[in-house]
Amino acid sequence: MRLIFFFAEFYVDGTTIPEVDFDVGPSWSGLLPISSDPNETRKASTPTDRKLFFWFFPPGPEGSLDDLIFWTNGGPGCSSLEGLLQENGPFSWAWGQAKPTQNEFSWTNLSSVLWVEQPVGTGFSQGVPNIKDEEDLAAQFIGFMQQFLKVFVELKGKKFYLTGESYAGMYIPYITNYIYEHPGALDLNTKGFWIGDPSIGWNVILQEMPAVNFVHKFESVFYLNSTFMAEIDAVADKCGYTNYSKTYVTYPPKGPLPLPGKSIYGDPGCYVWEPIFEAALLVNPAFDIYRVFDTYPILWDVLGFPGSFAQVQVAPVYFDREDVKKAIHAPTNFTWSECSAHRVFPYGDGDTSLPSGVTVLPKIIEKSERSVIVHGLADYVLMAEGSVRLQLLTDAPTGNNLQGFQTPIKEGSLIVDGMGTLGNVHSERNLTYYEVALSGHMVPQFSPKAAFRTMQFLLGFRSTP
């Protein structure tokens, strides 16, 4: 039995996707409004009409008909089509590849997958951004999903899993919490969520505090001179970074984390992340904050973003080609870029929501059947020590009013079939946390087999993580 959909205006013929020399199978893509407001119709075209672009794939032959995965990239303002093309979609055009190839670890091998470019202002999505915080974002996304389910009615009632990476560490927890707090808003059975290398806390904890320790962990990769190392060590000592984890990471936790200083961004004189980045570029001009092992040559990227900096290409990026736009029902009179050049949170300093790790994340862990957080250990954008090991494991009370993990993470505990030890994994009270060695910021891209395994567990296809 297969899911059968109609709606020719959205249908994509899997044999006619440009540059793809194999049949990807049927899919559906296009624009849908964020609400049922008559002014936000599929045919409307004024700046106040806000519509999100989606690409939906039903499950492959081995996939489940009972589940639906939603995926979003982060940014804020970065396209989920990057995730589809280079992380977890059915065809892959990764950095350095001459053409697309089949992705044996596509999440469509598990279930239906819906990639959505959100919020408004991201990718092909249309209209003027008008959100101030994550509550606004969640409401607009749920409005879109309501319109989506009116079209794809066969998906109503499916088990629903929300997934994403990076700034989706804000998006996914707030959207999931919105669903739990508005139980009649969405005709889906929400089961859990997955976030990779997530932004879930204060900047001083996410980036500044762990940066020097991270450099020491990968000294042979950074290869910074002793003078510079002495300088950043002195800053880390002065600012309370050096022994912060050793002091406050205990099992069970002793209490909420204090800030290392007085500022959520870092005190004056305590900024080390940016100086380290600049020094690393002097030693290795191809240094990639998304995966620190990269060196010259910088691999060509069909999306124009193969590392720390966007690259200028002679040929247009894949999703900005007119033939690609026509094939997937995207607006042809629109310039697509992987990450938006304008702000998707347009007011003031941007997103006014507090970090998800200190607000909604503990709530949705408790309410979900399964929750998965994954982190690549070679990620310098958001380092595991600050992003998860501290923000989540010691500062997020969940079931039975217990705070954080009660027992330590066992090193070398993640065993991936056919690969051996590939990192660490730990489960307590609805939450399973994975750390993937060798992977950078985008785990489904850099370690697709490990990412696939984590999704098998989230969906209940594996009994153990």
TrEMBL record:
Gene3D superfamilies: alpha/beta hydrolase. Its EC number is 3.4.16.-. GO terms for biological process: proteolysis. It comes from the Eukaryota. Belongs to the peptidase S10 family. Pfam families: Peptidase_S10 (PF00450). This is Carboxypeptidase. GO terms for molecular function: serine-type carboxypeptidase activity. The keyword Heme does not apply. The keyword Lipid biosynthesis does not apply. InterPro entries: AB_hydrolase_fold, Peptidase_S10, Ser_caboxypep_ser_AS. Keywords: Carboxypeptidase, Glycoprotein, Hydrolase, Protease.
